[in-house]
Amino acid sequence: MQLRAPAILIAARSHGETAVIARLFTEKSGVAAAYVAGGRGRQLRPVVIPGNLVEAEIRAKSDSQLPFARLELARSRGPWLTEPLPAAAIAWTCALTASVLPERSPYPSLYRALSALLDAICNAPSARGWAPALASYEVLLLREMGYGGAKPEIAGLEQALEILRASEAPIARYLLADTRADVLAARSLLMQRLERMA
Length: 198
Hints:
alpha+beta, 5 strands
C-alpha cells in the first residue's frame, strides 16, 4: 500500500512512549489506520488532533502490516477545541465516523460531507449555522451504511434538533451497537449543549 492524499484525521490513539495509531479518512481510499512515529512529540502533537485536515503519506510493505504514515498539517481545528460547542461537535463527528466506517472502503460523499461540516463548525458564527449540516451528515451516514432514507430539507436549528433527536436511536441501534459507550457519550454532551441554545 502506497498512498499520498489529503485526509481528515478522525481518531488518534497513543501507542508506546511517543507514537500514535491514527485513523485517516481519505476521499478515494476511505479510512486507513497507520502508525505515526513521534505522534505525541512536540512537533506532531498539534497535527495529530481529530478533525485536522492533513496531507498524508501512507506506506506499507504488505497488506498484513500496519502502514506507516507521515503527516503534514493542512488545516488545523485546534483553535476551536477551546470552545465547548464546536469542540463537542468535532469530537462527536470524528468519533462517529471512526467507529462506523470500515477500513479501505471509499465513501467519497461522506468524505466531502464531513469536510464541509468541519469547515462549517469552524467558520459559522454560531451553532445555528452548522447544526443543519450536522443533522444532514448523520442522515447521510445512516443512508450510506444502509439504514436511512431520503435527505431531509432542514430550515433551521429547531428542525435540525428534531432530526438529530430522531436519528439518535438508529445510530445507537445500528451503527454503534458493538462499540464502546464513550462514543455515544460524546453525542449526549453535544446534544445537551445544542438543546441549551434552542
